[in-house]
Structure formats: structure tokens, C-alpha cells
Amino acid sequence: MSNGALLAIVLGGIWTLMWPGTPMGAFAIVGATAFLASSMKMPITALVLMVEFTRVDHDFIVPMLCAVAGSIATNRLLEIRMQAQQARSSNESSELKGTAISRG
């Protein structure tokens, strides 16, 4: 959670340079929730845990939901790409083994 909070504070600092007025703690809570949801692969559980642990207002739920949805979508996209890349590399290695056996 601290990784997500730290990244959110850095990105929140950039955000406040352009649009000042948002507290940095809000970015930390939203980022920690997104990181926790993505790492546990349980978005609803992470959202409920963070709301219960931090006792934030209901105003935070929409930004938390958006951040969780983005982190889960990114996580799934990267998993699909990694699986496709691993499948391609295993197919290439099996083809190379097949040509080495037929030549031998």
C-alpha cells in the first residue's frame, strides 16, 4: 500500500502544480486503494478495507472506484500481453527444437 500511496503523492504533486487546492493525503488514500486492489486482485475487498480503516467520507468513494477500475484494467491488460508473449516464446522454442531434431 505504501508504494501506491507514494506514487499517488508524486503524481498528486504534479496535479496540484496545475490545479492547486487538493490535499496530498487524498491522493495517498486513493493511490493506496488502487495499489491494494491490483496487488490482491480483489477490488471490492480493497475498497471496503480502505474505507473502513481510514474512515474517509463518502466523497472519496468515486475517485477510489475510478482508480481501482484503472488499476485492475491495467493489470489485466498487462497479464494478457505477458501471457501472449510467453506463448509466442514457447512456440518459437518448440519450433527451434523441432528443426534441430529433424536436422540431427
UniProtKB/TrEMBL annotation:
Chain residue ranges for the region called Disordered: 85-104
SUPFAM superfamilies: Clc chloride channel (SSF81340)
Main location class: membrane
Species, as recorded: Caballeronia sordidicola
Keywords of the record: Membrane, Transmembrane, Transmembrane helix
Keyword Disulfide bond in record: no
Membrane-topology annotation of the record: Multi-pass membrane protein
Coiled-coil parts of chain: none
An example molecular function term from Gene Ontology annotations: chloride transmembrane transporter activity
Keyword Transferase recorded: no
Places the protein is found: Membrane
Protein name: Chloride channel protein
A Pfam family reported for this protein in Swiss-Prot or TrEMBL: Voltage_CLC
GO CC terms of this entry: membrane
Gene3D superfamilies in the cross-refs: Clc chloride channel
